[in-house]
Amino acid sequence: MDEPAIDDQRPDLRTATLAEAGEFGLIAALTDRFPSAEHVLVGPGDDAAVLRVRSGHVVVSTDLMVEGRHFRREWAEAGDIGRRAAAQNLSDIAAMGGRATSLTIGLAAPADLPAAWALAFADGFAEECAKVGAVVVGGDITRAEEIVIAVTVLGACTVAPVLRDGARPGDVLALCGRQGWAAGGLAVLTRGFRSPRVLVEAYRRPEPPYAAGPQAAEAGATSMIDVSDGLLSEVGHLAAASGVAIDVRTDALEVAEPLHAVGAALGADPLGFVLTGGDDHALLATFAGADAVPEGWRVIGSVGEGAGVTVDGAPHEGPTGWVHF
Amino acid sequence: MDEPAIDDQRPDLRTATLAEAGEFGLIAALTDRFPSAEHVLVGPGDDAAVLRVRSGHVVVSTDLMVEGRHFRREWAEAGDIGRRAAAQNLSDIAAMGGRATSLTIGLAAPADLPAAWALAFADGFAEECAKVGAVVVGGDITRAEEIVIAVTVLGACTVAPVLRDGARPGDVLALCGRQGWAAGGLAVLTRGFRSPRVLVEAYRRPEPPYAAGPQAAEAGATSMIDVSDGLLSEVGHLAAASGVAIDVRTDALEVAEPLHAVGAALGADPLGFVLTGGDDHALLATFAGADAVPEGWRVIGSVGEGAGVTVDGAPHEGPTGWVHF
């Protein structure tokens, strides 16, 4: 039986749309881009992947990103959107005190999306994963009206996972990582500007402090969360889950110099970016006392009896972060 | 400090839209619906779930469903769409010879989607998962123009996972489960009809033979896949991955009686539903000989040297299954 010479009919993925590339052509090209790892017993291409788990447990989280809502193609290149998609998921594992090992990607996209966009997205995604030694082990692609990216991340902890509900009165609240930078960059982009470049880059390429998650867990953090939607709203999650009150001290927050420039230009309080901005994926954790706070973390508040979040002892007016509906 | 009386402001989820219900209200209502299980160390509500893994490995798969492409709200109730979303993922684990334990759900949906739809979807999803003892351990919700459902399923195998690439010349090809029923039901619905009811129900509520996956693995299946997109296209995946030729014998295929009625009414060959239909999630596997085929499986073809798929010894004309782009 003669086999068709399919090589000759393969579309050029540098210029093809997803429809022209076809599901299987695109999957083959994507799979080629993803490195494997020792723990991957069966990688992409079968009904499911099979991963070795030595720790006796797996930490798992899922996030969605929708075009026009979580990203805009005109505001960031495909590779950077890939980095952000990976970063927000890797950060969820860090926020448990864990290390990510494996991810799956679901990509729903219009038929006319350039295949090159999907490939560049995959490259950026894989690069971000490589920062923590994680790899892509599977996925799905289908047609849709708008781009929806669904990522699931798996990982493991070396000590007990740090939950949101362990903060106790007397604990201190600490922050690790840049905070407010991405929100400043987004505010700039939203108004059609491209500078300060350092903030725009912070939005396009967040640098979550992945290693600080396990570091905090080993240091005995009593609760932890990553700042995805806004500092105050995440502090609110810790307070609600733990059944405590948390006060944030603004004099302890670092307002980066370029945020002052953006605040002046836009007529906004630069502290607002820090208090309500998300997307940097800084880590927030509570510790039993200032002595327990590890290097690289900054004490920004305190935990008390009661409920809710206060800023410098007073209720905060206005939004506390991103609203999904 | 006084706490706001949030209970009084809670929207009625029986009548609210997603936007009115709000992200956190909806998540709380959804989480309440999902039972837990002994292996779930940390369930929904933190940055990630934590699952106990005793087997030393995890089997993982991801699938997307898009409204208008994979389902239509006018063709099936929310609970049935939830069942199908779960079924197609649970089936991927069965096709490795495994048992599913845990799932995450990502739901991107318009702001005006009734919250009741999402809750009914979740109920159906959880019911289907309960068939195999699996539970929902996490998820994400966000706003989008159309409904996109992203599911990731985790599971484990008790014997070595059965891949697609192990079919060898001399093996027999066998099928377990209904095949073509859902395609017949979909053909009926597409044309605006609602009967034969048994086929419409088969489309709305697939009954994948979950237990047949581990059964085949224990019986020494050499390769296995589930029929998601079409019988012949899935046989093609087995043939390509294994580097063999596979012939399907139509006289061995069961063409259910109602498919004859639909074929006659629509002027279509009822065998077409069986050969190219998906969505029933029947299982296809190869075994070293007819003696190795376990009870409940039907031999429908044979594996030989070469490449590609034939039907009764001849190439098949026309589509072999569902095309995603």
Automatic annotation (TrEMBL), chains A, B:
Residues that bind ATP: G139, D140, R164, S228
List UniProt keywords, sorted A-Z: ATP-binding, Kinase, Magnesium, Metal-binding, Nucleotide-binding, Thiamine biosynthesis, Transferase
Q: Name one GO molecular function term.
A: kinase activity
SUPFAM superfamilies to which the protein is assigned, alphabetical: PurM C-terminal domain-like, PurM N-terminal domain-like
Q: Where does Mg(2+) 3 bind?
A: D47, D92, D226
Q: Which residues bind substrate?
A: H70, D279, W322
> Which parts of the sequence belong to the PurM-like N-terminal domain?
45-156
Which positions does UniProt annotate for Mg(2+) 1 binding? T62, D63, D140
Q: Where does Mg(2+) 2 bind?
A: D63, D92
User: Which residues of this UniProt protein bind Mg(2+) 4?
Assistant: D47, S61, D92
* Note from the entry: Reaction mechanism of ThiL seems to utilize a direct, inline transfer of the gamma-phosphate of ATP to TMP rather than a phosphorylated enzyme intermediate.
Entry's family note: Belongs to the thiamine-monophosphate kinase family.
Describe the task this protein carries out: Catalyzes the ATP-dependent phosphorylation of thiamine-monophosphate (TMP) to form thiamine-pyrophosphate (TPP), the active form of vitamin B1.
Do you know which PANTHER family this protein is assigned to?
A: THIAMINE-MONOPHOSPHATE KINASE
Please give the name of this protein.
Thiamine-monophosphate kinase
